[in-house]
Design a protein that fits this description.
The structure is a homodimer.
Chain A: E1 10-23, E2 26-33, E3 43-44, E4 46-49, H1 56-68, E5 74-81, E6 92-100, H2 108-113, E7 116-120, H3 131-148, H4 162-173, H5 179-188, E8 192-199, E9 207-212
Chain A binds a DNA duplex through residues 161-163, 178-181, 183-185, 200, 202-208, 223, 226.
DNA sequence: ACAAAAGTGTTTCGGCTACACCCATGC
DNA sequence: GCATGGGTGTAGCCGAAACACTTTTGT
């Protein structure tokens, strides 16, 4: 596709981001409470236009920096939504991304200023346009990734206990995992490094902290969750 | 994203399709031999522009009809490629799809007219721009799908033997599967319907034909190929 | 008779599951 | 002492993998 581009139609192209965060055993999503028309007062995903001089990924990063103040966020493409009437304001092609961010790091003042809020995944209100479908697609993709790769690096604090990691998985998959089996499974991957100190606030006995080893080989692909 | 669209930049948006076909135990891809500048003589994927009044999926379907004469083709989104310089002719955002088509059904005269050819997957020549990356991404997605769903419906003739199905899988994964185990695995899914007639051309003994049962429950999600 | 694919049966092995059970500690 | 989460051990089960073996038929 390269000859005489200029005679062909051009389109408005946007990015919409599903920003996952994790706090108090709950998977959350950063949503925006629209303060103007159309759909004023409704909740929507965080999005923005793609500029002429930026890739879709750069646009998503820019939007994330504007809202959360965070750079170097984990981002993954989900899907393109291009129905003609998906946005009542006009024909807009939207490229959907999901992001994982560490809630403890994010700039809440900035988020507040943009009228955003962290909403528990299982308590998502009605969203504008096709944003619910986008959210579902992003969640499926997140589960798929978490099922064959150990995630958590981008959602948990640097140091975490295995119970915290398990509860993250329980929040993502909305189901329980056997504590003993989960522990054995994730440790067998050899991606976690045991620390010498313990967390004593979540239990009486105290649980050792772990952290992700930053090896190159950490692209381990194994079945962590078999079916879902 | 809906207020005052008109002040925001618009982009050229294209679709590029990786069209998979299967013939003589070989996985093939339909490529186009460019007959004009730029990159004249080079091979490229089949693509086209998205029109104002069509979705990305519709654009891909239209392109496929133009080239193969086939409607109702299996299509799946792969990924968006949006690097600024990916197309030397200008800034083009490309939405990549892969398709599976039955080679026995396709219109070879039409394809010929467009300067296209079926190339074996493991003998792909150098492709223009970022089309090689697109092809790799599409192949990964195809393998992922084939690993948890029984595919073949869209690549094989209506009637096929289990050996033909196995060889399709071997072509997709570029590895061998144990004939006995493969047979037991796919039959255990209960998605195939044994026919009364046999194929006698591929072997002396003859092998029963099977066909896909067209049940709704055929959305079975199981591990057909564990790791790859 | 032999080769070659079709089709069935069997054994082994590893991993997941479901537990039981001990440990450490705050109350 | 007892409740609670931390952590270890183990028996059973299921499915994948490896491979032996029998069937059928064209040459």
């Amino acid at each position: 596709m390269s000859d005489s581009h200029y005679q062909y139609p051009k389109h408005h192209v946007a990015v919409d981001c599903i920003i996952f965060g994790y706090e108090k055993d709950i998977l959350k999503v950063l949503l925006s409470h629209r303060r103007f028309q159309p759909a004023q007062g409704d909740w929507s995903l965080i999005g923005g236009w793609i500029r002429e001089e930026e890739t879709a990924e750069k646009a998503a990063e820019r939007v994330l920096v504007e809202i959360t103040g965070l750079k170097d966020i984990y981002l993954e493409q989900v899907e393109v939504f291009s129905k003609l009437d998906r946005d009542p304001g006009g024909r807009v092609i939207s490229i959907v991304f999901y992001a994982m961010i560490r809630l403890d790091k994010h700039d809440s003042v900035l988020a507040e200023k943009h009228g955003t809020g962290w909403i528990a995944y299982n308590k998502i209100p009605k969203l504008v346009f096709d944003h619910e479908q986008m959210l579902l697609a992003a969640h499926e993709k997140l589960k798929l990734k978490a099922s064959y790769e150990l995630i958590g690096q981008n959602l948990l604090p640097t140091k975490f206990t295995l119970t915290q990691l398990r509860k993250l998985y329980e929040a993502i998959f909305q189901r329980k995992f056997d504590p003993g089996n989960f522990r054995k499974k994730v440790l067998s991957l050899g991606m976690l490094e045991k620390q010498t100190d313990k967390n004593t606030s979540d239990s009486k006995k105290g649980a050792y902290y772990y952290r992700f080893e930053n090896k190159e080989e950490n692209l381990i692909r194994d079945n962590i969750v078999k079916r879902f």
